[in-house]
Amino acid sequence: MPATAITLLELIKKGESLLDEQECEGSLAGSEQIAMHLLGIASRVDLYSEPKTITDEIEGAFFSLIEKRAEGYPLQYVVGEVAFSDMIVQVDERALIPRPETEGLVDMCSKWYPHDEALAILDLCTGSGCIAVSLATIFPSATVTAVDVSPDAVMCTRDNVRAHGLEERVNVIWCDLFAGLEGNQFDLITVNPPYIPTGELASLQEEIHYEPRIALNGGVDGLDIVRRIVEEVKQYMKPGGRVICELGDEQADMVLNYVGEKGYSYGEIHCDFAGKKRFVSWRNEE
User: For residues 104 and 281, what is the distance between their CA atoms, to the nearest angstrom?
Assistant: First the structure.
């Protein structure tokens, strides 16, 4: 007699057990997400709503990805995507994995301007392009310039821009901060820079070591790139233009002080969804 095909529930439970053996955080959610990815299902409700056929091909692919996850590979890289700001962003080792904290930056920007305003937006250190793509979607009349010094990240951003059909409004540039932007000015400049101090990189959790070091390493105190931006950004800001920058723990007060030292009279600290000081914004009042 032919072997009975494995059921979806059995598949997920076996995946959870294998991940538990390796002490992977969120083993059940990880197993479910890998199954959803292979079955082309968008939500957990849909995963369990009706019987699913598990072919030998799907079963083999499932356990192959479970093995990868069990080795410590980030779940987002395993499935090649992450939910971010009400959309799906493609992600792999070319770029930093978008974090929930960064959704707070997008949320604030969405509340600062009417959604039909024809904004000129610059997204520095764009990485996967998650901020650029989200803002281009929220502000359908905006033009967005997305910049990164990493050619791998630039290619990842271009993939996401293409996936969301935004090629006509999002321009992706490979350059070091403002190097390719002479003569341009923007209403809104967003930044999620590398801000982890170099000395702390080795002690980060194992999964983070799969992410590109260039997107993490912020120098001795984590603020090398941030200081450059504060020093150089003014000529790229329209009158009344605004910058918002994501930061690490205990960096916001230092950056706000530095913004004041560089002559900006309006600066503000904003908290993330967990109540931590996560962002600093400032404006060009000239």
Answer: 13
* Of the residues 49, 79, 109, the one at which a domain ends: 79
User: Please, what's the b/e burial string for 105-134 (b: 16 or more CB within 10 A of its CB; e: otherwise)?
Assistant: bbeebeeebeeeeebbbbbbbbbbbbbbbb
One domain for residues 154 and 257: yes
Tokens 């991940």 sit on residue: 19
Find the mean pLDDT for residues 149-175.
97
- What pLDDT does 5 receive? 78
What token pair was written down for 277?
């000081």
User: Could you report the per-residue pLDDT of 30-53, keeping only the tens digit for each?
Assistant: 999 999 999 998 888 888 888 888
How many CB atoms neighbour CB 235 within 10 A? 12
Q: What is the CATH number of the domain that holds 158?
A: 3.40.50.150
**Percentage above 70 pLDDT, the chain:** 98
Judge if 109 and 197 occupy the same domain.
yes
Q: List, in order, residues 6 or more apart from 157 with CB less than 8 Å away.
A: 95, 126, 127, 128, 129, 132, 133, 146, 148, 172
Of 18, 4, 13, 2, residue with least CA distance to 35: 13
* pLDDT tens readout for residues 163-190: 999 999 999 999 999 998 999 999 999 9
Domain with residue 28: its CATH number is 1.10.8.10
Domain containing residue 259: 94-283
Give the mean model confidence (pLDDT) for residues 107-121. Answer: 97
Q: Are 209 and 155 in contact (CB under 8 A)?
A: no
